[in-house]
TrEMBL record:
Protein name in the entry: Arc/MetJ-type ribon-helix-helix transcriptional regulator
Ranges in coiled-coil conformation: none
SUPFAM superfamilies, per database record: Ribbon-helix-helix (SSF47598)
Gene3D superfamilies associated with the record: Met repressor-like
Gene Ontology biological process: regulation of DNA-templated transcription
Pfam families documented for this protein: RHH_8 (PF17723)
CDD domains named among the record's database cross-references: RHH_NikR_HicB-like (cd22231)
Annotated organism of origin: Aurantimonas endophytica
Length: 138
């Protein structure tokens, strides 16, 4: 059975995911909700995910550092990219979390300045930018 959950607190800072659970697992979650341990299924699943992430926090941080990942939110503005272009540099964007490329960034500017884009999490950019950068997204 598929259960949909929100990965964070509000639609603005979350990504919807779908998971498949066995009927027994789902029934156990329902029982814990009915017994008042959790307010709903989503609360249970979020808590379980947070507990696992907390349990592996050290490994995540080490891996993120080794891979030179920006943790959390990384916003790329038109001004940022214009600066790269003026200096004749390119940007290797590596994010664990949310990467946002501002809507006023043109496809041309992005292609001139973004050498690579690796996002573990979510990328928010215009459909045109995502299409243009497809070959640089790893």
């Amino acid at each position: 059975m598929a259960t949909e959950i929100m990965a964070a607190k509000s639609a603005a800072d979350s990504e919807k995911i779908t998971i498949n659970l066995g009927f027994v697992d789902l029934g156990q979650i329902e029982l814990l909700v009915k017994e008042g341990f959790y307010s709903n299924r989503t609360d249970f699943i979020r808590t379980a995910i947070r507990n696992q992430l907390e349990r592996h926090e050290h490994a995540v941080r080490q891996s993120a550092a080794r891979r030179s990942l920006d943790l959390g939110l990384r916003r790329v503005t038109r001004q940022d990219l214009e600066g790269f272009r003026e200096r004749g540099e390119t940007l290797a964007l590596n994010v664990l979390g949310l990467a946002i490329i501002d809507p006023d960034v043109s496809v041309e500017l992005a292609l001139d300045t973004i050498a690579s884009l690796h996002v573990l999490g979510s990328l928010q950019a215009s459909p045109a930018l995502k299409t243009a950068l497809r070959g640089r997204i790893g």
